Amino acid sequence: MQGIQRKIVYLSLYEGIAIVLSTVFLSLITQQEASKTGVVAICASLVALTWNFAYNCLFEAWETRYSKGGRGFWLRVAHTCGFEGGMLLLMAPLMAFGLQVSAAQAMGLQLGMLTFFVVYSFVFTLGFDRVFGLPASAQRSPAV
Fold first, then answer.
1. Could you identify which of 6, 53, 61, 138 might form a hypothetical disulfide with 134, taking C-beta atoms 3.0 to 4.6 angstroms apart as the criterion?
2. Which residue, 71, 92, 90, 81, is CA-closest to 118?
3. Is residue 139 in some structural domain?
4. Residue 92: which domain range?
5. What are the distances in angstroms from CA 20 to CA 2, 4, 17, 83?
6. CA-wise closest residue to 137 among 50, 84, 66, 80
7. For every one of its 144 residues, what pLDDT tens digit does the chain have, with 9 covering 90 and above?
8. How many domains does the chain divide into?
């Protein structure tokens, strides 16, 4: 599976699981009802979908030009850190507004979510690539 179909399947699976996990995590941590944390999780998912699509398009364009093929450990670490760093900047204000907490509390919650999502992103992407294969941008070219 390649191209836009791959991206849609990836994002749908990733965000569907993320909404459920985020709703539960935020509800447990903040002691707020899941109906409230669920709305925040869905809004976060919409932000994440937009950011994920844009970030991965840019990353794969870079990968096509500069990568030697394959996706080794350090390239996956860099990919995950870049994505999550962007999410931290985008999500802290949403978290403060949606959960009606202070900016400091929102940053603490977002750092907790970031910690979880760094591991989740790495494991999910590795599993996704194993199930669906690598995208064309990461496949090694045959030797000429």
1. 138
2. 81
3. no
4. 3-132
5. 27, 24, 5, 20
6. 66
7. 788 898 889 988 998 988 999 999 999 999 999 999 999 999 999 998 899 889 999 998 888 887 777 788 888 888 888 888 888 888 999 999 999 999 999 989 998 988 888 889 889 999 999 998 888 788 776 555
8. 1
Examine residue 143 and state whether it is found in any structural domain, yes or no: no
Answer whether 0.90 is exceeded by the pTM. Answer: no
Task: Let me know the angle formed at the C-alpha of 74 by 128 and 132, rounded to the nearest 5 degrees.
Answer: 15
- Cα 106 from Cα 94, distance rounded (Å): 8
With beta carbons less than 8 A apart as the criterion, state whether 55 and 82 touch: yes
Asked whether residue 119 is domain-assigned, the answer is yes
User: Cα separation of 141 and 144, whole Å?
Assistant: 9
